[in-house]
Amino acid sequence: MDIYLPVADVSVNIFVLLGLGLVVGFFSGLLGIGGGIILNPTLIKLGIPPIVTVGTSVAQMVGATVSGFFAHLKLKNVDLKLGVVLVLSGFFGGGFGVLLSKILEEAGHFRTFVLSFYAFYLAFTGITMFIDVIKKKKEHKKGNLKNFLNALPLKYRFEFGEFSVLIPIFVGTVSGFLAAVMGVGGGFVVIPALMYLAGLPVNKAVGMSLFQMIFITAFLTYFHGTVNYGVDIILALILMAGSSFGAVFGSAFGQKLNKNITKIIMASLVSIVSVLSFYQLFFEKEKEKETIKEVHNLISDFAHNHPSVYSITVIVVSLIAGTIISMIAHRLKVLIEIYMEKRRFYKG
C-alpha cells in the first residue's frame, strides 16, 4: 500500500517505511547509536530527495530522543553547564551544515556530497572498529592522548570533571555539523568522544549526548524547514512509529550480547552501509525526482508559504508523538519482560 509523501513528492509503500523504521530502531536499541547511518542511504535508494531525507531524519529524531532524555535526566546523568557548551557549539556547527546543504543542493551536488560522506566516513569507522576488536589494547597511544588533552588550555571544572572547554566545543561543533549534513544523531560522535577525550563514564556520556541532541535536532528541524524546505512530517511520523517499537526489541536483545560481539555487529553494519553508499555514488544514476522541487498540495504549500510555523508545528507534533509512542513502547517492553519472566519461572 503506497502512501504519498507531500514534501518529498513521491509515493512509497507504507509497510516498507514501517519495516525500515523497525530495523533502524532495532539496531539503534541494540548498538546504542542513532539510526541515521542505516536510514538515510536507504531512503535515498527509495527515491526520497537527499535534502528531504536529511531534514526529515533529523525531525524524527526530535521525538525519538524524548524518552531517553527524561530517563537520563532523572538518573542525574546530565551536567547542565557541559550541556550548554555542547548545545551552543552544536548550533554553530549545525547552522553551518544547513547553509552548506543549501548551497550544495542549489548547485546539484548535495546527493554526491552526502553519499561520499557516508561512503568514506563509514568505511573508516568500520575498519577502525575491526582493528580495535582485533588489537584490543593500545595503552601507549592512550598515554600520548592523555598527555595531549592535559596540555590543552581553558580548563574548567564541570560537574562531571575538569577538562578543557575546547573539548566539548569541538565535540558539539562536529556532531552538530554531521547531524545537519548527514541527518544522523550525534551519539556515534558524542558518546565515544566524551568517554575518551573528557573521561566521562558511558552512562554520563549517553545522557549528555541525548541532552544535546534533543535541542540540536529541534534547532536543525526548524533550520532545515525554513532554509531548505526539506522536512516531510508524514515521513517523519511513519519512521518514528517504526523505530520506537524496534528500539524496544533491540535494547532487550542487546542486553544478552557481550561487548565484542556488539562491536563486530556495529563494524559489519557500518561497513555494509559504506559499500551501499559507494555503489549508489559510482554506479547508480540520480533519479529525476531526487532533486526537491516545489509541489502544490496542502502540506507542501503550508511548508513553503509558512516555513517558520510549519517547522515549529513539526517539532511540537514530533515531541508529542514521540512521548506517546515511547510510552506505548515502554509498556510493550514491560509486558514482554513479564512474559519472559513467567516462561523462565514455569520452565524452572
Automatic annotation (TrEMBL):
Keyword NAD applies: no
Alphabetic keyword roster: Cell membrane, Membrane, Transmembrane, Transmembrane helix
Principal localisation: membrane
Membrane topology summary: Multi-pass membrane protein
Record bears the keyword Transmembrane helix: yes
InterPro entries registered for this protein in UniProt: TM_pro_TauE-like, TSUP/Inactive_protease-like
Cellular component annotations (GO), alphabetically ordered: plasma membrane
Location of the protein in the cell: Cell membrane; Membrane
Domain of life of the source: Bacteria
TM annotation in the entry: 12-39, 51-70, 82-101, 113-134, 177-198, 205-223, 229-252, 264-283, 309-329
Pfam family, one: TauE
Family: Belongs to the 4-toluene sulfonate uptake permease (TSUP) (TC 2.A.102) family.
Protein name (Swiss-Prot/TrEMBL): Probable membrane transporter protein
Organism (species): Persephonella hydrogeniphila
Lineage: Bacteria, Pseudomonadati, Aquificota, Aquificia, Aquificales
